[in-house]
Amino acid sequence: MAEPQVLILALEGSRRLAVLADVAQVIAAGGTATLVVSDMAKWRREKLPKQLRVVDLTKLELRLAPLAVEQLVLVRGPGFLFKAVGRGPLAGGSKKANRAYQRAFADRVHRRVGLPVYRRLFQPLYAKKGDPRLRLLDRYVLQQGRFDVLLVADPGSMPAAATVLANLTARGAAPTLCFDVSAVLSAPVG
Amino acid sequence: MQTNIASDVAVVTPWYPTGQRPFRGAFVQAMVEATAPEYRRVTVYHTDEWGHRLPAETTAAIDEAYRALLPHGVHRRPTVGGADLVHLPVVMPVTPDYAEISRNHTEALRSSIGNVPLDAPVVHAHVGLPGGWAALHNARPDARVFVTEHATFLNLVLEQPEARAMYDELLHRCAGFFAVGDAVRKPLVEAFPHHADKIGFIPNPIAFDQPRATPVTALHRWLFVGGLLPRKGVSWLLEAFAKCRAEEPDLSLTFVGEGQLRKDLTRRAAELGVTEAVTFAGALPPDEALRMMREHDLLVHPSRFETFGMTIVEAIAAGTPVLVTRCGGPEETLAGLEQAAGELIPVEENAESIVDGYRRLRDRFPHGLDLPRAQRELADKYSYPAVARSHREAWFGGAGAGASTTTGWDARTDG
Q: What domains sit in chain A, N to C, each tagged with a CATH number?
């Protein structure tokens, strides 16, 4: 398969070494790899190649209306104010102050208040139509590109893989499903 | 020898090198590389366990999706020796229950091949539970199933009543059963004395065709290859090295491998003042590890228990003397060659036995050794052609050739 476009689902993040080996193979074959994760913290220690596109479902989830409003109030609005105030000689100090605000206040409020409220009140509503993160993945990633190969990299990605495969197949864009990329990058046998 | 036997062979194994575990089952890969060129078609079915610890409410959804996806996600691709490889994940919650593990491997294999029997008259499995069980229950009715046991955790398997009963059945129904050494055969014979005659030996193959460029002239560059684990005796090795280096400042030590003791060993090397003489090379691919053997002067292998001791034979094949514990497999592998290949030492919880062993070896090196003789004799038993011959005799002639297997294909619920 020449220059394969590979979508890698590694939501559990439990087989990171295998994923890195697969990504290296895809890049070596001249292809592109898009890695979908649900907790970027698990990948913090891994050296991800710069050619790899990483999609963090937790970040993607921030595009849902309740979290988007929360982010507007908590992050983007104050960010705009810091930028407006920090002109000229105040620019450096303003940037530092914004970063400190994000770390000390915005991130904490998001983790301790915003996310729990979303999970309790809104997520059950969204979940009635299936995992909302996968709908976002479909809208912002799958519909924007072509994927020849769907690689399922860990047990926790199985349900998501079934949904993604069904979505792509329904659009007439069924990828080749595999559990390690060398199985499809190698010349087919027999 | 290329005999081109017009027959198909299926190999079923839970262990085979992957991106996640590049070294696990390297000996199975070596067995395939040694045997496959002689046959029309060899297919390796790697039932790769993907254990998870996810919540029970998630497990049902994972299981349902996995069952739906598995038949569509497995592909045949080339591997060593002209064989094909079918890699299939066995997704299941982590469990110590070997009976349950075996049933899951059996089902995964069956599902991945489309609920039809393995299309080969000979099926060779690695690891009794789960590999042998999965092979037995997926072989076609006229197939003969052979099993090679390598596991170091047999005691854990045999202390579980259901797993023990399954093992007994496996031994009863398979056409031939092999252990890679007496350390594996002995507990099996003790547990199943009624099958003692059926449990033979078959070694792991070793490459003898890449010796070092120049012979070792001094035992200065020590090498350890294996996991940095308590069972491997690496802490005692570091202590012993520091003592020996105090007498011989030219000594160096390289650890090839990874494991839970890496940090402790690094810290201890600093405390002992030998940091500059100790290298942690990390885990290396098999070819790189073999190159390291050719570039060092002495393989030190102070393991507490080994079923075979493949690394030791690999070192001798590379022309490197060995200092190794009598920990099960090695003394059997080196029987009659102890003095020619290096020095064997007892398994003791101290550094002194390693230090004493090194001094004895150093004092009689090089004239007290005969590595070429050790290489010749080990190659007769463990080289690729020798191991290929052993398998051929088992599968198509000689011992076990006439024996039959009672496969489980008709008893579908057995799996």
A: 5-61+131-185 (3.40.50), 69-127 (no CATH)
